[in-house]
Design brief:
Length: 413
């Protein structure tokens, strides 16, 4: 299935990032820092899969056609069904049929129940009952074809699957779900159970009331949450339960009422290394593409990081706290001559400078009053976020420590 692919680079961080697929081709709405390389389809697959990270945020909605819901495209299930078809052909519910013929396997239990012929003291069974497995072209087989067709339409263009599946939807989605669940309950075959479970995921993720639609829109607004989650995973951030204690809270005390929590602030990533705490704020800002100062974090973001630093320092009773911003960029694009960057890890990470505020007293300033800003190659992040990158983590931490040491030595001169 060779569809034309058109990539549109999105300028605003809160605009739609995702895919629109129809009979004319595929339109990909990608961040400006996404890089199209020779084998770019693997990166598009990673971009597609990354959208599912947003399902953990209750206020965020994935866009699916005209219907906005939290359903996620089960890409792994699409791939499983397609590979199953390529290896085994169409799936059919196979039934054991019996007949009085010489073809097939003799079923002696049923044969011996027949009336035999007695001849010259011999017992002869002239009507052998044989059995063989025959394909039953039933609803389950048709649902399988629908799931296969659905999978090919959605991801076939990424894998160059060049085949057409003819299938029709005869029953509603709820009926299909019920049918497949019964099949799961009635089989002890592990492969069949796996097949049926993948089919269920595909059916449940379909748009509206139709599985056989030919037009799909899938993506997310405010991709910043996905970026934040990928950074947290790549840099081995504390899990949510442990990180929660570092959430600063505000409170209201109204007259004649009990104190009530206003809300909590939530740091993106808390990284613990060698007795030090690194507070990382992930910003899906466009500086990496535009190189403009106005596309860097604003003053309110600086204040928030310093507040986090104050709170972590208080909770852990330590001064060993650091602050950092991480923004996306394309390491292959050259920066303007007036912007100097220091690259690490083959350019996958780059240091661009630091930020501070003017209302903190000089004598009471801490190491976390300076927020160090880094860029990360977006394609590298897409390809590697599922595992913590300890080499990259070391380079980031070492770089921050070098900057702190340099700043402190200037103050002490």
């Amino acid at each position: 299935m060779n569809k034309d692919i058109n990539i549109i680079y999105v300028e605003k961080a809160n605009d739609f990032i995702g895919f629109n697929i129809d009979k004319n081709g595929v339109t990909v709405y990608a961040p400006q820092s996404f890089r199209k390389e020779d084998k770019y389809k693997s990166d598009l697959i990673a971009l597609l899969k990354s959208i599912s990270l947003a399902k953990t945020k209750e206020i965020e909605k994935n866009k699916k056609g005209l219907d906005k819901s939290n359903n996620i495209w089960p890409v792994e299930s699409y791939l499983w069904i397609v590979r199953d078809y390529l290896e085994n052909g169409f799936y059919y519910n196979r039934e054991k049929t019996y007949s009085n013929s010489n073809s097939g396997k003799i079923d002696w239990k049923k044969t011996l129940k027949q009336v035999p012929i007695f001849s010259n003291g011999n017992i002869i069974y002239d009507k052998l009952v044989t059995s063989k497995m025959a394909a039953s072209n039933d609803l389950v087989a048709e649902i399988y074809k629908l799931c296969l067709k659905h999978s090919v339409l959605k991801i076939g263009w990424l894998y160059n699957f060049d085949f057409n599946i003819e299938a029709q939807q005869f029953v509603s989605i709820s009926e299909m779900v019920s049918i497949i669940k019964k099949e799961i309950d009635n089989t002890f075959d592990d492969v069949k159970r796996m097949r049926f479970n993948h089919m269920l995921k595909i059916i449940n993720s379909s748009e509206g009331s139709k599985v056989d639609s030919n037009t799909f829109t899938y993506g997310i607004e405010n991709y910043y949450y996905v970026f934040e989650t990928m950074i947290d995973m790549l840099f081995d951030g504390l899990e949510e339960k442990k990180k929660k204690k570092y959430n600063p809270n505000g409170y209201w005390q109204l007259n004649n009422q009990e104190e009530t929590k206003a809300s909590s602030l939530r740091p993106d990533t808390i990284l613990k290394r060698e007795g030090k705490t690194y507070i990382i704020d992930s910003k899906m800002y466009q500086f990496g593409a535009t190189h403009k100062i106005e596309d860097l974090p604003e003053t309110q973001s600086l204040q928030k990081q310093i507040t986090y630093g104050d709170y972590v320092s208080k909770i852990d009773n330590t001064s060993e706290v650091r602050n950092a911003f991480i923004l996306p960029y394309d390491k292959r694009k050259e920066f303007n001559d007036n912007v100097s960057i220091i690259k690490y890890h083959d350019g996958d990470l780059a240091y661009i400078g630091e930020a501070h505020v003017d209302w903190r007293k000089e004598e009471s300033k801490t190491d976390y009053d300076r927020i160090y800003a880094y860029l990360i190659d977006f394609n590298y992040l897409l390809r590697n976020y599922k595992r913590a990158d300890y080499d990259l983590i070391k380079e980031l931490c070492d770089s921050i420590e070098d900057k702190i040491e340099s700043n402190n030595s200037k103050v002490n001169q």
